[in-house]
Design brief:
The complex is a heterodimer of chains A (227) and B (151). Chain A is an alpha/beta fold and 227 residues long. Chain A is built from eight helices and seven strands. Chain A is globular. The relative contact order of chain A is 0.20. Chain B is an all-alpha fold and 151 residues long. Chain B starts with a helix and ends in a 9-residue tail after the last helix. Classes of the chains: A alpha/beta (227), B mainly alpha (151). The interface between A and B is medium-sized, with 28 and 41 residues. Chain B: GO terms for molecular function: histidine phosphotransfer kinase activity; protein histidine kinase binding. Chain B: Pfam families: Hpt.
Chain lengths: 227, 151
């Protein structure tokens, strides 16, 4: 079965904790509000559903421009002064016409008001240079599509924890990677009795967890998939 | 046919689609997103995929029919098709798109035309199979049963 393993130092910390992370709801106990940006209608519907089923409020827009408008950052329109729905997370596709997810990321990080909002990049392309660029620009994570429920759950736990504890320093510096099965989406390995997505305590259960990968944990060595 | 039989038929059919590579695990993911509050999720997504794909295939046909082919444009369409097929788990369609993009990069018209033909073929196959699958789902629900998940 296809499984997207995840590596991050954060998960190692959780493992050291010895117990599952508590539920730290955001201070005001409201649902997380996520702004999702994707030009593909199919992907927008999927991410919206993934987030809703994970108990998040979702605003889904189809372009970087609209995302900025929603946030009130668009230079062309006067300050919209929307009803102050706080955005807890922005998740955006990388490849979009007009403004790429990377350009959107930069604009958000340049804004004093919004730079603290975690931004996650999604992309169907597993290009190391691109991943590096995004993480260096301040993206929390770079998720290789297709996005799964386990990805969203993991993100939500992470963001919820941050909101509750208000600490960001260590996490911010960590470069996170998302790994994908070497036998990417191979149907022959998809069986009806496939296990559920990996738990936070076993980030190294993916077949890619070879010793060489662990030595250089921040580098993806998989280069196939024909992209 | 009683609910049990319909459900077994559904499971067998789904299993065969996975075995033959028409669908991959991402389709399972989508099934898991469907529940009583959102009972039509899979149907909706699949319909969107059909609409999107048909539009893209038309665009591709036109783009490759030009005197002077704009390979960047062709690649952009294939990229979109690859994305949406990946998102719903249409494994074979996705794979053709991967090969297709290589030919775009090489600006290989013959390769591109072959892939276009192939992707249209794979698309029509998976469309057919998904429609059959969704029909089976409807039959189960109409008979008062629930759709078994392949987890």
């Amino acid at each position: 079965m296809t499984r997207n393993g995840v590596f991050s130092r954060r998960q190692k910390l959780e493992k050291l904790d010895g117990f599952k992370s508590f539920d730290h709801p955001p201070p005001d106990s409201e649902e997380l509000h996520v702004l999702a940006v994707d030009d593909s209608l199919v992907d927008r519907k999927v991410i919206e559903r993934l987030l809703t089923i994970s108990s998040c409020k979702v605003t889904a827009v189809d372009s970087g421009r609209r995302a900025l408008q929603f946030l009130g950052l668009d230079e062309e329109s006067s300050s919209v002064g929307f009803d102050g729905l706080k955005v807890n997370l922005i998740i955006t596709d990388y490849c979009m016409p007009g403004m790429t997810g990377y350009e959107l990321l930069k604009k958000i990080k340049e804004s004093s008001t919004f730079r603290e909002i975690p931004v996650v990049i999604m992309s169907s392309e597993n290009i190391l240079a691109r991943i590096d660029r995004c993480l260096e620009e301040g993206a929390e994570e770079y998720i290789v599509k297709p996005v799964k429920l386990s990805d969203v759950k993991r993100l939500k736990d992470y963001i919820t924890k941050e909101e509750g504890e208000g600490e960001k320093s260590e996490e911010r510096v960590t470069l996170k990677r998302k790994f994908q099965d070497a036998c990417d989406n191979s149907p022959s390995s998809s069986t009806p009795s496939s296990p559920t997505p990996s738990s936070p305590l076993s980030p190294f259960s993916s077949p890619l967890s070879s010793p060489s990968l662990l030595e250089s944990p921040l580098r993806r060595l998989k280069t196939n998939d024909g992209d | 046919m009683d609910v049990g039989q319909l459900q077994r038929r559904f499971l067998d059919y789904t299993a065969s689609l996975f075995r033959e590579g028409f669908l991959d695990d991402q389709f399972n993911q989508l099934q898991q997103l469907q529940d009583e509050s959102n009972p039509d999720f899979v149907v909706e997504i699949v319909s969107l995929f059909f609409q999107d794909s048909e539009k893209l295939l038309n665009n591709l046909t036109r783009a490759l029919d030009q005197q002077s082919v704009d390979y960047k444009r062709v690649d952009a369409h294939v990229h979109q098709l690859k994305g949406s097929s990946s998102s719903i788990g249409a494994y074979r369609v996705k794979n053709v798109c991967i090969a297709f993009r290589s030919y775009c990069e090489e600006q290989n018209i013959q390769g591109c035309l072959r892939c276009l033909h192939q992707v249209k073929h794979e698309y029509s196959l998976v469309k057919n199979k998904l429609e059959t699958l969704l029909r089976l789902e409807q039959q189960i629900l109409a008979a008062g049963g629930s759709i078994p998940l392949m987890v």
